[in-house]
Design a protein that fits this description.
Distance between the termini: 56 Å
Strand order of the largest sheet: 8-9-7-6-12-13-14
CATH topology of the largest domain: Rossmann fold
InterPro entries: CheB-like, CheB_C, CheY-like_superfamily, Sig_transdc_resp-reg_Me-estase, Sig_transdc_resp-reg_receiver
Protein name: Protein-glutamate methylesterase/protein-glutamine glutaminase
Helix content: 25-40%
Structural class: alpha/beta
Subcellular location: Cytoplasm
Order of helices and strands: EHEHEHEHEHEHEHEEEEHEHEHEH
Strand content: 15-25%
Enzyme class: hydrolase
Family: Belongs to the CheB family.
Number of helices: 11
Radius of gyration: 20 Å
CATH class of the largest domain: Alpha Beta
């Protein structure tokens, strides 16, 4: 049996430290070995206790969470889960933290609501298991290969090709690596990334600044257009693609699938039905199995499918399940996925219009 995941809880609020610790200690496979109220205490505790995982508040006195996270990633790379407020400022800081190398994020609950922190248990367990791979990834970060030599026709018609991407833990870094090589006239691209509701708008804005195409948080009935990337909003609705003659994003009210809303499976299922062989499906790093069955439907419908390989995943969960189901046509390292997707969308398949 594996030893319990050893966790250090860092937050300037004693109440919040106690709440996080109580939730984590309720699981026998998690052991909160220490608490710290600021970066100085946390640094000393990391040296003394050698935890497997750190939960880190973003807003702290003396040295904020982002500054401390950068020091951790530079001096002692380890899985860190950011705990953020539900404000726009908190969301912006969390996206920055995930780019720096935080393992995952979670939002602070509203008063009297501890449900968000119960998700933290699974995140902590996954972070502890990622240990060696996570440290290796931080020491040798990937950089996406430029895709400038891939020409996507400027007369590309909506409906000819659609790209659908699903990701979860580790997805912020992975999506940036994949999308920053896309040209301004890339095929319409739809993405479901597991992320708290208040964070997806900030992430879409960050992607829009980093990428040549226009990136936006999807809205209901937004038309899929060349050069646009649509990120499913977090919260209480799924995103699907509808209307094969003039494809649009639809945000629909349905129960969670695989514990998620929005769900990658729901998105992939819709793309399989609407686009069939005129689609490319991509499944990236993440916990669980969301997206695997939907990617299999896409492949059965004639779509080309790509999965991130184990070596470059922060968490080889979703891509592993998809690969074992036979949903993945080819597994690739992260730095090769963007260029391959563009090649698949630019090339005409035999029998295509």
């Amino acid at each position: 049996m594996m030893a319990p995941a050893r966790v250090l809880v860092v937050d300037d609020s004693p109440t919040m430290r106690g709440l996080i610790s109580a939730v984590l200690n309720s699981d026998p496979d998690v052991d909160v070995v220490g608490q710290a109220g600021d970066a100085m205490q946390a640094r000393a505790a990391i040296k003394e206790l050698n935890p497997d995982v750190v939960t880190l508040d973003i807003e702290m006195p003396n040295m904020n969470g982002l500054e401390f996270l950068e020091k951790i990633m530079t001096l002692r790379p380890m899985p860190v889960i950011m705990v953020s407020s539900l404000t726009h400022r908190g969301a912006e800081a969390t996206i920055t933290a995930l780019e720096i190398g935080a393992f995952d994020c979670i939002s602070k609950p509203a008063p009297g609501d501890t449900r968000p922190f119960h998700e933290l248990i699974d995140k902590v367990k996954a972070a502890a298991k990622s240990g060696t791979r996570f440290q290796a990834g931080r020491q040798a970060p990937l950089r996406a290969a430029p895709a400038a030599n891939v020409n996507v026709s400027t007369d590309y018609r909506v409906g000819r090709k659609v790209v659908a991407i699903g990701s979860s833990t580790g997805g912020v870094e992975a999506l940036i690596e994949v999308l920053k090589g896309f040209p301004p006239n890339c095929p319409p691209t739809v993405i479901t990334q597991h992320m708290p509701a208040t964070f997806t708008k900030s992430f879409a804005e960050r992607l829009n600044r980093l990428c040549a195409p226009q990136v936006q948080e999807a809205t209901d009935n937004a038309r899929l257009e060349i050069g646009r990337i649509y990120l499913a909003p977090g919260g209480d609705r799924h995103m699907i693609v509808a209307n094969p003659h003039a494809p649009v994003c639809r945000l629909i009210d349905k129960p969670p699938v695989n514990g998620h809303r929005p769900s990658v499976d729901v998105l992939f299922d819709s793309v399989a039905e609407i686009a069939g062989r005129n689609a490319v499906g991509v499944i990236l790093t993440g916990m669980g199995r969301d997206g695997a069955a939907g990617l299999l439907k896409m492949r059965h419908a004639g779509a080309r499918t790509v999965g991130q390989n184990e070596k470059t995943c922060v968490v080889y969960g979703m891509p592993r399940v998809a690969f074992e189901l036979g949903a993945v046509e080819q597994q690739l390292p992260l730095n090769a996925i963007g260029e391959e997707v563009l090649k698949l969308t630019a090339a005409r398949r035999e029998g295509s219009d």
